[in-house]
Design brief:
Radius of gyration: 22 Å
Number of helices: 4
Distance between the termini: 41 Å
Helix content: 10-25%
Number of domains: 1
CATH topology: Porin
Strand order of the largest sheet: 1-2-3-4-5-6-7-8-9-10-11-12-13-14-15-16
Number of strands: 16
CATH superfamily: Porin
Structural class: mainly beta
CATH architecture: Beta Barrel
Order of helices and strands: HHEEEEEHHEEEEEEEEEEE
CATH class: Mainly Beta
Length: 356
């Protein structure tokens, strides 16, 4: 390994270019060479009808209208650009990745922070129509996850994988804070079918002229995914600080969903019943300040391209909780497709988003 590092450093100094390591990574580079100059175009269209007991009590919505392009001009350089037309901001992901070896990759640009299994699971692979009340609190309200501009190191080593990054902490908006956010995630696969993960995040705030009740905020998470026979179980627990007062509040959330992977009806059709449960304690220092939410539904997968998702959610909360109560039924059509474009593959499709 020492020889690899010396060779890599000498090559960088002599040529000013990034040099992939020699064996054992040569095999990986040779396999990657076939993908050089390959561009993969993708698209997603999600349309839904929502029926609920709040205003408006029923509405159609274009939930997602996205175009993406993945490209690899060099064996060690990959790029990704995702554009959203249904809602702002227009640029979702804009990131390039330099790969030295499977255990060391450097990414820079705008992309999701490595925090929370539910948040980092891409929408085409998520069986739920929404990520729910716990994700809304920790990611959308507190800002511990989600997209941001920054840099990240990641890699895989045996049964373990890691990711750690530094970000502006402005959710892609203009950076006005000299302090930064950090986020990290470590996962392990002790045996086939089981994956365990831990996440951590910190927000360091230092905008000139702003007096914060608490400048440094922290969050942590523990998650697991278990595939056992026809069952696919995902569970995650999160803790995080709001920073609205000097001593808190701290919030705790638990999310669990279960998907039943029934045998395919045919090569083109698959039915996936599911259920989910969430518990959110807004302030662990204050009693009777919580909300609960439950989901039941079924997803119909058509040819690995289209999902017809019918799900009902019931949310109940105490009078002191900031989470509103809701009864909601959603019917969503989700189309996800990817097509690699290269001299050898034009006209073929690689739609792997919904994975029935």
């Amino acid at each position: 390994m020492k020889g690899h590092r010396v060779t890599f450093l000498a090559c960088v100094l002599a040529t000013g270019t990034w040099c992939a390591p020699s064996s054992p990574a040569q095999a990986t580079e040779s396999a990657t060479t076939a993908n050089l100059n390959k561009v993969t175009l993708g698209g997603s269209l999600y349309s839904r009808l929502s029926l609920n007991d709040s205003q408006p009590d029923n509405s159609f919505m274009l939930r997602r209208a996205r175009l993406s392009a993945d490209f690899q001009p060099l064996s060690f350089l990959q790029g990704e650009l995702d554009l959203e037309a249904a809602k702002a901001p227009a640029v979702k992901d804009a990131v390039f990745t330099l790969t030295y070896a499977p255990w060391l990759r450097l990414s820079s640009g705008q992309f999701k922070k490595p925090f929370s299994l539910l948040e980092t699971t891409s929408t085409p692979r998520l069986p739920l129509v929404d990520r729910g009340i716990v994700n809304d609190r920790f990611v959308d309200s507190y800002g511990f996850g989600g997209r941001d501009v920054g840099a990240m190191l990641a890699g895989e080593l045996g049964a373990f994988s890691y990711a750690a990054g530094v970000f502006n902490g402005t959710k892609g908006l203009e950076d006005i804070d000299p302090a930064k956010d950090v986020a990290a995630r470590l996962t392990a696969k002790p045996f086939a079918g089981l994956r365990i993960g831990v996440s951590g995040a910190a927000k360091f705030r230092n905008v000139p002229g702003v007096d914060y009740p608490k400048r440094n905020l922290f969050a942590a998470g523990l998650d697991l995914r278990l595939k056992l026979g026809l069952l696919d179980l995902v569970s995650e627990a999160l803790w995080g600080e709001a920073g609205t007062t000097k001593h808190g509040p701290g919030s705790v959330g638990i999310v669990t969903y279960l998907v039943l992977r029934l045998p395919k009806l045919s090569e083109m059709l698959a039915v996936r019943p599911l259920t989910a449960f969430e518990f959110l304690d807004d302030n662990v220092r204050r009693p009777d300040d919580y909300a609960m939410s439950g989901v039941v539904g079924v997803n119909l997968h058509v040819a690995k391209l289209l999902r017809v998702m019918v799900q009902a959610r019931l949310t109940r909360s105490t009078t002191t909780s900031s989470t509103p109560e809701e009864r909601l039924v959603v019917v969503q059509l989700a189309l996800d497709s990817k097509m690699p474009l290269s001299p050898q593959t034009v006209g073929t499709s690689d739609a792997e988003g919904s994975q029935p």
